[in-house]
Amino acid sequence: MVLLQEMALAMQDHPEGMRISVSKRWAAETIAAEWKGGVVDKDSIAAAEAFLAAEEVDSGIIVGGGQCVLLASHFSGVPGGTCYRRTP
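Request: output the structure for the sequence above.
Response:
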């Protein structure tokens, strides 16, 4: 649950304003540091992507929408209909 909270906070603190939808890659990169001792690389991103895929099924908090991850929430009027990609 902590990883989902971290992802939700990152979505809330998005540089372009709060998001309820982000790309699956952005979400995975956001939490990838939790694998491999804080190193973000292709293996830790793949592990994070697998975690997110499992959470789509198990949690009900994440809803996959094609290439997007949607944060199931009660927010309305919050930008997020577009998948946003992590920028360097």
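Confidence is low (pLDDT under 50) at residues 74-88.
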